[in-house]
C-alpha cells in the first residue's frame, strides 16, 4: 500500500476565474477547483492592497473550512484590485461601466494589486503577498475604446482590459516583477510559496 505520508498535499484553486485556471495549468501540477462563497465588498476606508490581501486569504480559508480535518490541502486564493488617483477600480459588469473606466484611465498610470494567498490546512497557516503592476494606458479616442469592448467584452475583469488578449493594444507600458500578476495569478510568487510549503513542484520535496 502506498505511504500516504509521502503523497503531496491536494492542491486547490479557490476561484471561478478561467484566467487563473489557465495560468495555474502552466505549472503542470494536478489541482482541483472549488469556488469560494464570500462577500467581496471592500470595507469602508480600506486601502486597495488591504482589500486584495484580505479577500485572497478569505477565499482560501473559506474553501479550506469545507475540507475534512484529516485531509491536508494547499489552497490558493487570489484577488486583484486596480486603483488610480486613490480610487479603486472593480469589475465593470456592463459595457457602459467598462467604457467609463477606460475613459477615466486613458493616458494615466494605474496600479494593479494582485494579492496571493497559499493556505495550508494542516498547519492553519497562510503565506500572502501583494504583487504590484504599474500599467500606463494609451490615450485613445472613445471610438477605439468602444470597439475594443465590443470585440472582447472584458466585463468580468478589474480595469476592463485583458492584457493577455486584445487589451494589450490599450496599454503603453507595463512594469512588474511578475509578468503573470496582471492576468490575476502571480506564478513567480506562487512557485516560491509552493516550494516553501515543501510541495514537489520541481519533482523534489
Blueprint of the fold:
Elements: E1 10-13, H1 18-25, E2 32-33, H2 48-64, E3 73-84, E4 87-89, H3 95-105, E5 109-120, E6 125-137, H4 142-152, E7 171-175, H5 187-196
Parallel strand pairs: 1-2, 1-3
Antiparallel strand pairs: 3-4, 3-5, 5-6, 6-7
Task: Please give a quick description of this structure.
The chain is an alpha/beta fold. The chain has helices at residues 18-25, 48-64, 95-105, 142-152, 187-196; strands at 10-13, 32-33, 73-84, 87-89, 109-120, 125-137, 171-175.
Question: What would your notes on this structure say?
Answer:
By secondary structure, the chain is an alpha/beta fold. It has a single domain, classed as Maf protein. It has five helices and seven strands; from the N terminus they run βαβαββαββαβα. Strands 1, 2, 3, 4, 5, 6 and 7 form a seven-stranded mixed β-sheet that branches. Strand 3 and strand 4 form a beta hairpin. Helix 3 packs across helix 4. The longest helix is centred in the N-terminal third of the chain and has 17 residues. The protein is elongated. The relative contact order is 0.18.
Helical fraction equals 25-40%
How many β strands by DSSP?
A: 7
Known CATH architecture: Alpha-Beta Complex
Q: What's the number of domains?
A: 1
Secondary-structure element series: EHEHEEHEEHEH
Low-confidence stretches: none
How would you sum up the major sheet?
Answer: 7 strands, mixed
**Average pLDDT over all residues:** 91
Which term fits the overall shape?
A: elongated
Oligomer: single chain
Q: Work out the helix count.
A: 5
CATH domain class name = Alpha Beta
Structural class of the helix and strand makeup?
alpha/beta
